[in-house]
Amino acid sequence: MSTPSSTRIASALPAEYRTRLLDVAREVNFPAGTRLFNEGVHADRFWIVRSGTVTLDVHVPGRQAAVIEHLGQGELVGWSWMFAPHTWHFGAEAMTPVRTHEFDAATVRTMMDTDPAFGSAMGHWIGQVLAHRLVSARVRLLDLYAPYGSGGSL
User: Fold this and answer.
1) What SS3 state is found at 4?
2) Which of 48, 86, 84, 54 is nearest to 67 (CA)?
């Protein structure tokens, strides 16, 4: 399933807010096969992919984790940092070598609180990402485990 452009940072945030956000980033690279995070663990950071592919997965009891989406350049990895209790709802793994911008969640939440316009833009973007990821998870799980699959795209 391809990701709509509204979930990529370049089309989701105005240039001014992208610049402000990237000003607090640090570059972090992950070798292929590295787990970025696991479900249920404290979410204290997030990433924007610069290059490479990250898979999102969901734990399925008694089965191998189900990959629900592949994320690439310009896409947000992690939204759980924004919502209490700040624990990951999915897992993520570097499928290829990955270069990212990494962000400290507390720093970005403070920026959002002190500038309501920035906070609104970030909230809107993360809401778009969240909605897309939940649909992707639903479709993927129906494809894997429902008797007749998802019946098509939603």
Assistant:
1) coil
2) 54
3-state SS assignment for residue 82: helix
pLDDT digits (tens, 9 = 90+) for 8-40: 887 788 999 999 999 999 999 999 999 999 999
HSE, side-chain direction, 13 A CA sphere, residue 52: 23
- The distance from CA 39 to its chain's CA centroid, rounded to whole angstroms, is 13
Q: Which two tokens stand for residue 57?
A: 């997965």
pLDDT over 90 for what percent of the chain?
62
Distances, alpha carbon 36 to alpha carbons 16, 60, 92, in Å: 28, 18, 5
| DSSP element (H, E) containing 107 | helix 105-114
What length is written for the chain?
154
Average pLDDT, the chain: 87
ω before 85 within 30° of 0 (cis)?
yes
Report pLDDT for 47. Answer: 97
DSSP category for residue 65: P
Q: How far apart are CA 42 and CA 10, in angstroms?
A: 27
Tokens (6 digits) for 67? 């990959």
Q: Which residue has the higher pLDDT, 54 or 129?
A: 54
